[in-house]
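Running this now, will post back.
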Amino acid sequence: MSFIINILEPYDMKKILASLIFGVAIFGNVCLALGDSESSVIKVGIYAADGKPPYGVFDVTASNGKVYREVILADGTFTSTARDGSVVKGVWEQRKNGIFCSKPFKAPRFRCKYEDVNSNGVWTSTEIDGGEISTIRRLDE
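Update: finished.
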């Protein structure tokens, strides 16, 4: 240990210690920003099917014709409101480009969907385990 101190003595130990603390603080903040925790859903480089961030305000038309206004927040929560006024709230994850998952607070598990914009510019969302297809329209442009 004294060998290391002798090597570092010519340098200002306070500056070295301050730099080390600063580096740890910055690294910790970068890890949080990059989604290093289990609860974080925003990841750098992950986009919705339209190439924009996965959060925003959307109209979702289900295959049965029902329309829902979905407010997807950057904090990982969503609110889905049907035209009849019924509201569902929950959490969401954009697991990777093209895979969007959501889970109402009362639901036991996430339901995931493949999302894509076809050659006609129509954004579709197809449930992975059920095959139901919805059409998505971003409203906050």
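The CA atoms of residues 16 and 27 lie 16 Å apart. More later if anyone needs it.
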